[in-house]
Amino acid sequence: MDKGKIGIILSQINGTDLTENCIESLKSVDYDNLSFYVGDNLSDDYSHLKLLTRFPDINLITYTKRKSYCETFNYLSKIAIEDGCEFVFIVNNDTRNFSKDYFNVLIPEFNDKNLGMVGSTCLTFDGEIRQDLNSMKNKFGHSIIVPTEGFILRTEAWKEIGGFREKLNIYTEDLKLQRDLFNSGWKIKSNHSVSFEHLAGATMSKMTFHSNYYRMRNGVYTLRILNLPLKYKIKQFYTWVRVHINNSLTVLKKGKFILAIKIILFSFAGMVAGFTLKK
């Protein structure tokens, strides 16, 4: 396969240093047909502008209104596709140390015309395995074949399924994306001979509302729409409620009373929204 044009899709909120390291790492990969599309999602300052000084060839988009996780990746991917990209690489900005031959290994996988998505091994910043062939994540009874921190899609497949389901905002959007690909007849594959590193929770760990409200809302919503045994749904729902209660108790033991209350309130609000969100 020829070296098709790849659109690197990155989004950030107050994470310019991480984005800078990510771009630098990707530019060191042995592949000469990359275009970068970076969306700054209303950072608190203008530090993101230094990216243009360091990398004048990237496409830097500054939003006038904050977009959700799903919205920003859909928006940037649309621009990349209009620019003629044959593939889009949806990747978190807190990633680095991509294998030198990362794209030279993964892009030829698309010689299979039915392949819609391909991924690789994902490591932590300490070099420990987050996801590979032997540690695939299981969400609601479904194996997440590729690491959701970074994966390549054929733009034809991306357009057919319409990208991320924007009503989800964030959390479980990866499961829905992969299910949509499968349901549309596209294959998903992971090649674990190449890898990258990911710093987990660099952004979302600082967002109490998002990390509790949307995780609970989308978890409940996903359990509603999936064709799973009722016994499994009840067990999974109980697990999610218990996790959020334990999170609240953990911070309460540290004397963070207000934060503990926020976790409970946001989680409860997410649970109610999950039961009422339209399918």
What does this 3D model show about the protein?
This protein is α/β, with parallel strands linked by helices and 279 residues long. It has nine helices and eleven strands. Strands 1, 2, 3, 4, 5, 6, 7, 10 and 11 form a nine-stranded mixed β-sheet that branches. A two-stranded antiparallel ribbon has the order 8-9. α7 (208-225) runs antiparallel to α8 (230-253) and α7 runs parallel beside α9 (257-276). The longest helix has 24 residues, at 230-253. It is globular and about 50 Å long.
Unreliable parts:
none
Order of helices and strands: EHEHEHEEHEEEEEHHEHHH
* Count of alpha and pi helical runs: 9
**Binned strand content:** 15-25%
What would the principal axes of the Cα set say about the shape? globular
Mean pLDDT equals: 89
- In this structure, how is the largest beta sheet organized? 9 strands, mixed
- Oligomer status: single chain
Rg, please? 19 Å
- Classification by helices and strands: alpha/beta
**Secondary structure: helix percent:** 40-55%
Secondary-structure topology with pairs:
Blueprint: E1 6-12, H1 16-27, E2 34-40, H2 50-54, E3 59-62, H3 69-82, E4 87-91, E5 95-96, H4 102-106, E6 115-124, E7 129-131, E8 137-139, E9 142-144, E10 150-154, H5 155-161, H6 173-183, E11 187-198, H7 208-225, H8 230-253, H9 257-276
Parallel strand pairs: 1-2, 1-4, 2-3, 6-11
Antiparallel strand pairs: 4-10, 5-11, 6-7, 6-10, 8-9
Helix pairs in contact: 7-8, 7-9, 8-9
